[in-house]
Write a structure and sequence with these properties.
The protein is α/β, with parallel strands linked by helices. It has one domain: 4-Layer Sandwich (Purple Acid Phosphatase, chain A, domain 2), CATH 3.60.21. The protein is built from 7 helices and 14 strands. Strand 9, helix 7 and strand 10 form a beta-alpha-beta unit.
């Protein structure tokens, strides 16, 4: 085949891909996070939820940090305010907590609150039943199995905020991993909390990968708050990164890892295994964050070899 004919064949193949209609089970969902932080963002967030509600979406995922990490009093009234705003969503609204929402409440500028007491309040306010938030409440599986049984009772209980659901033969799972070194290195009580939460997260992630590997399933979406790939991410996150890489390679199906924390839209493939090789079937998606109030529309199309397509809807791209 001559060079000209080869180029023509390639262009024809690309045109065929572009014209290929979406799969009948194609759907889309929204990702947002790290907002609202102040009065301006509250107004913009409400307007954004209105725009999201007007679109044909399956659900919304918020990857945590529902308040600023400094200068916020972590008050019960603020949690109630955020829940009210999330419940305004016409679509089911799924939340996973961020470090601003409880562990950073220990800071002087946040009122020197007890992080463990604030974590209990987050669970009481947002995770009391097996449903999403939002005007349309979607049933969700809730982690209930003890993560680390003890001789008597349970040493590390399950996390009620860890959720799982399926849509279009894709598994969705949230795991509670946060910034601020995942609450490690402050005192013995908080170190114990982090150790148990890590055990519960790894157990829940294993369940999600196992389900995603069953016959007929197409892929997996994992949502959490922490950016595991940030330069400042400490060694406390290494066990999760290693498990993610190993399980994804075994799964050999598309995986989308969704997170917040560093407030910068990204859609790439940064995960590497222990040998340093890129894990090609894992894409990372980070949404916008304060001071930008934006979201990402994710399309799940079984006719797409990557399964997931991302369309950023930041402040400068809103319709």
């Amino acid at each position: 085949m001559t060079r000209r004919l080869a180029i023509a064949a390639l262009l024809l193949a690309l045109a065929g891909c572009a014209l290929r209609p979406p799969h009948p089970e194609t759907f889309a969902f929204a990702v947002t996070g790290d907002t609202p932080y102040d009065a301006r963002e509250e107004l913009e967030f409400d307007a954004m939820i209105g725009r999201i509600s007007a679109e044909p979406l399956a659900f919304v995922v918020h990857v945590g940090d529902i308040m600023a990490g400094g200068g916020t009093n972590c008050a019960d009234s603020l949690y109630a305010d955020r829940k009210r705003r999330f419940d305004a969503s016409r679509h089911p609204f799924v939340l996973t907590p961020g470090d601003n929402d409880w562990t950073d409440c220990r800071r002087d500028s946040n009122g020197r609150r007890d992080p463990l007491e604030r974590l209990a309040k987050v669970r009481e306010g947002f995770f009391t039943d097996a449903f999403s938030l939002g005007r349309t409440r979607m049933p969700l599986a809730v982690q209930e199995t003890c993560a680390e049984p003890a001789r008597t009772g349970c040493a590390c209980p399950a996390l009620p905020e860890n959720r799982l659901w399926t849509k279009g033969k894709v598994v969705f799972v949230t795991i509670h991993v946060v910034g601020s070194n995942d609450n490690r290195g402050f005192d013995a009580a908080n170190d114990a909390e982090q150790r148990c939460r890590e055990a519960a997260n790894l157990a829940w992630l294993e369940r999600a990968f196992r389900l995603a590997g069953t016959e007929g399933m197409r892929g997996l979406v994992i949502a959490t708050q922490m950016n595991l790939f940030a330069d400042y991410a400490g060694k406390v996150y290494d066990p999760l990164k290693a498990r993610l890489a190993a399980e994804a390679k075994r799964l050999a199906r598309p995986v989308l890892f969704v997170h917040g924390e560093s407030h910068t839209y990204r859609f790439d493939r940064p995960l590497r295994d222990e040998s340093g090789s890129r894990v090609g079937n894992v894409r990372r998606l980070e949404s916008f964050g304060s001071p930008q109030v934006g979201w990402v529309r994710v399309t799940v199309d079984p006719n797409d070899s990557d399964l997931f397509r991302a369309e950023p809807r930041g402040p400068s791209t809103q319709p």
